[in-house]
Amino acid sequence: MAIRITGGAIHDPANGTDGDVRDLCLDGGKVVAEVAPDARRIDARGMVVMPGGVDIHAHIAGPKVNLARRLSPEAREPQDRTEILRSGSAGLVPSTFTTGYRYSLLGYTTVVEAAAPPLAARHVLAELRDTPLIDKAFLILMGNNQVLFELIREGTGLRDAIAWWLEATGGYGVKLVNPGGVELWKQSNGRISSLDEHIAGFDVTPRQVIEAIGTAVHELGLPHPVHVHANNLGVPGNASTTLDTMRTLDGRQAHFAHLQFHAYGGKPDGLPRSRAPELIDHLKAHPELTADVGQVMFGPATTMTADAQISAVLRDLGADKWLNHDTEVETGCGIVPFTYKEKSYVHALQWGIGLELFLLGDPWQVMLSTDHPNGGSFLSYPKLIRLLMDRAFREDQLERANQKAIRRTMLLDALDREYSLNEIAILTRAAPARRLGLVDKGHLGVGADADVTIYHDRPDREEMFATPRYVIKAGELVVEDGELRTTPDGTLLSAAAAFDADVTSTLEPLFGDRYTVRFANYPVRDPALREPARVVQA
Amino acid sequence: MPERVCAGCGTVCDDVTVDLTTLRVEPQCPLAERWFAAQTAAGPAATAAGEAVDLDTAVQRAAALLGDSRRPLLRIAGATVETASAAIALAEALGAVIDAGGGSAAVALRGASTATFGEIRDRAQVVVVWHADPETTHPRLLERLRLPAGGRTLIVVDEQDTPTATRADLHLRLPGGVEPLMEFDAALLGEAPNAAFLHALDGRAELALHELVRRLNGARHVTTLRLGDPRGADDTLAWQTGYAGTVDLGSGHPEPAGRIAPDVEVRVESAAIAVADVVIRTAFGGTVHRMDGIPLTMHAVADRPAADSILARLREAL
């Protein structure tokens, strides 16, 4: 169906458009130059028109998300069945159909599941298939993969193996989580604190893993560079590890996940302080690096991570619930429900560091995330946007937080920045789409996907971003006035790079010794799980 | 002969060869023989009250029974992800209760530490089988975990001389229940930095096990594995509704459900779907989750309608 959106203020920073009032035409699922006079008209006068939201880092599907559902049945809100909607339940970890509905109602049209065990790809794909309305991609966990450790030590076959793994799973990119550290945790609750420690049982170090995989992904030219959850998450003083990791990857493209959790000064057993300014300085000097923030929002969250050692730390701080799950050869998983408290020094500092990263950073380089649901639900993005756009609101919130922590940030005196609508469009759309290598997303130029969100231009930015007036997905009007009108499936986004098919003769014996699944049964071939997909070639 | 996947128990072996004429299975396993026999048994496509009927008649009769039902119950334990999806959609349309045979009150209260087979096989120096008998219920599990083995210790806690107990390095005749778990002596694990418990517990005993494992998990790394059916159906119920186990869809949204007294029961089994006395023979295929959660693709061996297609037809016929 052809649509002409008339009279809206277009915020399309990727194409240099900052609030220009003009018509936007959509047809065949794409942005087009012109439509026929009988096209449906959407009157957007007085409204703000942006590309659909793109979430570069969230946890929405797969075994760990589903274990979190099992862990917290009490914390759920019912989602009723309607003529067009499947029933389900919402909360910090919504059921799959509800996840798609809520993201769409928020104006998001593309979401990346940031940590999937490749061995569980069928499960991840099945959940994503059941998550309607959004286009979706997943990153495969490779930083603690024993087979890759062997290839890194031998110095051979790594690029082909990574490309094979993406082909075998339908994944979109490569994720490292606490490289080497999760393997040690699974062996004997061990941990790693320096990039040059040896990973017991494997003659490699975290630095070699980071460098080898980062280089391989860079050289393969995958649409999204290596996506790094650095070592020592949450540990005071970890900014040194983060900078060391960045330097290890210098000159190669890389994305750093939830940078807030990796931006701490102080001594490991002491109180953390902020080193956000140093990290931002490093990023500004290194345009090949990007990050998302992983903002914490005061209130309930669910921590879920492949970095299972962190979950055990939270368990020992007195968590009621703790879930650990070890996946052979590849990864761990830890889940702990958690609440961030305004009056807590540590939590207020984390909140403040996140805001520092946003307010000091360039939105093309430092993107919006709460590491959903680790720092808070994706449903809190509108409030986060208001914190960035509305200084008076931010100062009111600052006053409520632990003052000792806030005084140790730059928020009180130096940072009076207020984000513009175009800057919001950058860090929630244009920048993540560009970083993901999704050339048809995150902008409204001719040929872009017709994923469009239209907001009332309200002074209360939280209200504005929480309730889009219209959401259009692939040219279809899916949300009108806060209600879903139709629920198309959305598309799986996969990445592919050419590889030497003979890599399987290297991989098969390594698999046979380690996995309890036959090599031939590992790759996902079922079209019902893999399609419809858009495959982005390296 | 091609290697096949077997869903005869939650181990879901994917290295099985079967001669579909003689039903000889390699490696040998009585549950695999039974499973492939049920998949390939000759007989009518459907029966009603024991009499052969054609498929269309059976579907119409089953749909009529469901249409008249006030409180239907669908049992889907062990089903594939695709079959579970079709069953949940049917249950939603009916406002039915659906039981996927899983869920755990203990996990929902306190969590758990769990692991896939490979983690236990390659890391756990001590494996404790707690009041379970995998040699009977999951005949190839010990073999797949390479137990018993030199350098590792297999401890079986059971009052009975079970087939599993006869293979143990150490057989402890402790009673069931909560107390032996609360009083478990960590010294039994010796110096092992990594240990695992295999169990089939629920309720308070399962909670006591997870509390024990949580306590043990400081100095060493300890995990558990619950022995049961393939769990894809329960996983699917959890992701589609937010709740594992038994879910009531009667009020238009999912709610956790306890025991109910259904007026019509639908049993989705590996080789048939039964709606009261109407039985439709089906093929089992799609995505199967092992009891440790690892998903595998299984191709149907029988030339019968897929279970999910029958469930979809029932929904359309309502």
Structure description:
The complex is a heterodimer of chains A (538) and B (318). With 538 residues, chain A is α/β, with parallel strands linked by helices. Chain A has one domain: TIM Barrel. Chain A is 33% helix and 24% strand. Chain A is built from 18 helices and 26 strands. In chain A, strands 1, 2, 3, 4, 5, 21, 22, 23 and 24 form a nine-stranded mixed β-sheet that branches. Chain A has an eight-stranded parallel β-sheet with strand order 6-9-10-11-12-13-16-20. A three-stranded antiparallel β-sheet of chain A has the order 17-19-18. In chain A, β1 and β2 (17-27) form a beta hairpin. In chain A, α12 (381-389) packs across α13. Chain B is globular and about 65 Å long. Chain B has 318 residues and is an alpha/beta fold. Chain B is 31% helix and 24% strand. In chain B, α3 (81-94) packs across α10 (232-241). In chain B, the strands form four sheets. A nine-stranded mixed β-sheet of chain B has the order 4-3-17-16-15-5-6-13-14, with helices on one face. A five-stranded parallel β-sheet of chain B has the order 10-9-8-11-12, sandwiched between helices. Chain B has a two-stranded antiparallel ribbon with strand order 1-2. The N and C termini of chain B lie far apart (42 Å). In chain B, β3 and β4 form a beta hairpin. The chains are: A alpha/beta (538), B alpha/beta (318).
Kindly list the characteristics that best describe this protein.
heterodimer; A: 538 residues; alpha/beta; TIM Barrel; nine-stranded mixed sheet; eight-stranded parallel sheet; 18 helices; 26 strands; 33% helix; B: 318 residues; five-stranded parallel sheet; 11 helices; globular
Topology:
The complex is a heterodimer of chains A (538) and B (318).
Chain A: E1 3-12, E2 17-27, E3 30-32, E4 40-43, E5 47-51, E6 53-58, H1 63-71, E7 77-79, E8 88-90, H2 96-105, E9 108-116, H3 121-129, E10 135-141, H4 146-154, H5 158-169, E11 173-177, H6 181-188, H7 206-220, E12 226-229, H8 239-249, E13 254-256, E14 264-265, E15 273-274, H9 276-285, E16 289-292, E17 299-305, H10 308-316, E18 322-326, E19 334-340, H11 345-360, E20 366-367, H12 381-389, H13 391-400, H14 403-407, H15 421-435, E21 452-456, H16 461-466, E22 470-473, E23 476-480, E24 483-484, E25 492-496, H17 503-514, H18 527-530, E26 533-537
Parallel strand pairs in A: 1-4, 1-5, 6-9, 9-10, 10-11, 11-12, 12-13, 13-16, 16-20, 25-26
Antiparallel strand pairs in A: 1-2, 2-3, 5-21, 7-8, 14-15, 17-19, 18-19, 21-22, 22-23, 23-24
Helix pairs in contact in A: 5-7, 9-11, 12-13
Chain B: E1 17-19, E2 24-26, H1 30-40, E3 46-48, E4 51-53, H2 55-68, E5 72-75, H3 81-94, E6 97-99, H4 105-110, E7 111-115, H5 117-123, E8 126-130, H6 134-137, H7 141-144, E9 153-157, E10 170-172, H8 179-182, E11 194-199, H9 203-216, E12 221-226, H10 232-241, E13 246-248, E14 255-256, E15 264-268, E16 272-275, E17 278-281, E18 286-289, E19 295-298, H11 307-317
Parallel strand pairs in B: 5-6, 5-15, 8-9, 8-11, 9-10, 11-12
Antiparallel strand pairs in B: 1-2, 3-4, 3-17, 6-13, 13-14, 15-16, 16-17, 18-19
